[in-house]
Queue: 3 jobs
Job 1
Amino acid sequence: MKLTIAKEQLTAALRRALNVISTRTTLPILNNVLLETVDGKLVLTGTDLEVSIRTEVPATVEDPGTITVLAKKFGQIVGSLPDGEVILETGENQQLAISCKKSFFKIISMDSAEYPRENQMENGWSFVSTCGELRKSLEKVAYSTSPDETRRVLNGILMSLRGGLLTMAATDGRRLAMVEKALPDGVAGEGDVILPPKVVNELQKLGDDEKQVTVQLSDRRVSFKTADTLITSKLVDGNYPNYRQAIPGSFSQTVILPRQDFLTVLNRVSMVVSETSASVKIKLEKAQATVSAVSSEIGESNEPFDVSYEGKPVQIAFNPGFLMDPLKHLECDQVTLEFNDEYSPVKISGDEGFLYIIMPMRV
């Protein structure tokens, strides 16, 4: 194999492939990145057997071929090279020579035949979105996943397609975040899958918001394909709980708040929150909300701001982090809070198709 490639493009492609390569593996080949030439391009693949990233970049290929090299070390070497054209060439004993201007390296490789390849996706269903829409939907729910590794189903995000409606949902048992979006007519297939946290993390790094991404799913795997990158992942085994049961059928009280002002005040007031008093209170009166917090270790804080509210006075306590999470990821100017009393579930909505259910704290 011999090719020439711009350092900038090689670095960007390596960064994507390296994201999924683990240093903790019992299979030495998984410490490597696979380099191969396909149709006049350099294709780089990294995998940990759960998630695989395959990305291609333009190159001037003189001699096609394939090789695998230690991923982290190759990445360090390429990152240290001066800007310019990089020449990659395999020699005797399948060593890879790397040269750029006056810099020269030669590193040992492993047989590429041992490197695991992804099989073609079979059956299942698919749809097309944009990188921006997919990334934003995931960001609006990902914070609600459970960090408890013994609850693997709740570590992931549910992706559901029913009747042309795509739903992303995440819950940790104390809150629920959900985004629904109608897909174009003619999308074939219906089903529910659970995306593991590692692939969710990679999808949130997708680049150009306008770039198209084709999502294809089967019973065990999912793939996300753009013009130059293919991300493939195993799915989480198990059945997602019936999260819709957590959504009350109706609410008696409604308040409309300016999202950014609400987030700013919450952030300021919660500075006095401690581990033993981990709550903020929101007191609602006619046209005004007051956020307050008290801590015996630190002190107290309160701040009022204008809202649209005509109901009876009420005070509700929340975990401040849980309350701020959706506000950080929404794009709307105003959010709507709906509730029945100070102890029942509270609904937050704002962006089209978004819904968040949070349980108040009893203090």
Job 2
Amino acid sequence: MSQFFQIHPDNPQIRLVKRAAELIREGAVVIYPTDSAYALGCHLGDRKALERIMQLRAVDKHHNFTLMCRDLSELGTYAKVDNSTFRLLKANTPGAYTFVLPGTSEVPKRLLHEKRKSIGLRIPDNRIALAILEELDEPLLTSTLILAGENEPLNDPYDIRDRLEHQVDLIIDGGYCGLEPTTVVDLRDGAPVILREGAGSVAALGL
């Protein structure tokens, strides 16, 4: 049975944040709130935890996972970013966007797009998520909490607990989240291309 932490959305309790980070380092699969929807997350290098998330999502190895980063400097460690791209990222982060960028050698090969060698990255505008990322001191491998056969993410932490408490290790109750996943923006070739319109404003990107 999973642990269930109620963490304040505006003033996250440090004790619970530290414990959440410890569990992630130990191999936990966690459900946590973001600025778009609840998400599944695990340690970047944990293959077994990643496989558990794939089973929950009913996706295969070709599924595009995202690296949740705490700030632009961390994002720049895992993606190749030129000056114009950096300006666009700076103007729109943190926020409900996933940016697809060329990955660096810091990204595990199994997470890169096979042909384009790209990776999705984002910086969430959510204090709980950012506090956990700060405590981890590295990105969190993540995927929106949409279960097999469903079209929308789960957003009620008590519903999540009822349905998934035996399949994950930690559920973080940060209140209700939205039902829209992020807006996905392809920046691999410089000019932004919208791959999916979601919670992040497309107009804010100047498109």
Job 3
Amino acid sequence: MKDYPIAIRYLVRIALVFAIVAVLSITKQLLVPLSFSIFLAYLLYPTAHKLEGWKIPRIATNLIVILSFMGVVFGVIYIMTQLFGNLSEDLPQLRTQFAGSFRDFQNLVQDVFFFFFSQQNEVIKTAGLSGDYFGTFIEAGKNLIITLALIPVYTFLLLFYRDKFYQFIMMMVKPKNEPVMQTIVRKASNVVPKYLTGLIVVCTVLVGINSLGFSIIGVEYPIFFGLVAAIFNLIPYLGTVLGYGIVCFFVLGVQSPAVAGAVVIQFFIVQFLENNILTPNITGSYVRINTLVIIFSLIAGGLVWDLPGMFLVIPTLGVLKIVFESVEEWRPYAFFIGTSGTEKHSVTIRSLRRRFGWEEESGRQ
């Protein structure tokens, strides 16, 4: 390949990237449940390994951990359905309130920008915000059911055949590269479960913080929207914006701009707490990816696999970072996607304490 001109080499690499993206997009329905299953298997592996250490057979161990996890998931779904049931009882009234608020907003746009109702409705129609989506909803629901049914099956098989997969990987690499591959597998089996567990803990804490904040500022159905905003927070940066955007949109439609403004203020407070206190202390430094790479990867994951891609892309980057760090010639890529090298410019509680001299004072005390 080195014998070819540099333009040809880069053209081949770009074509390879486009081919990979095309394959990922075409095989989305096949690979999305498998990808979720891989990370779920990583999450459940420490517990399964511990149970096997107690002489419990592997089949029974896998069933225990998977059924326990499914019980927790169904419990969360049950809570959400109960909360949504309370909201759905008031849905006709909320729809009327929202329609009235939306008409007021259209009047304001018409009076200020001379953008008339017919033009606004045409834009809304062009953007796809109106119409019959029943068929699309049914198709999406069918795909979701298939995905949710496959994930436990894939996870069980991945946990059951994990030794076989490990042996297969060792057989594929050259003997001189076996120590490097063993390091990658060991780090991944240690780091990924801790990171995913930390995400779940952060999400749980945020449910309480969000719900309490929404209750204080007067948002209707605070627990339901606190749970929704916390779940979206599993998507770094953009997820918090999406979750709070849903809440703000609801509040603007059925309550008041003042409450919506309070929601925006709470968003910045929660974002600061999550980025500087919760995530550093709960997930630690298991997966440190810089913000530019995260945002670019989230958009790319969303383009290829929609919302599931946005959930999966950060753990995938974490695994890639482990691979890059373990292979010497790939370490520049680990440095590029990581956070090292910008510590002195980061805005954290510790950096603020150093800047204002509080850390020195606390050390003297």
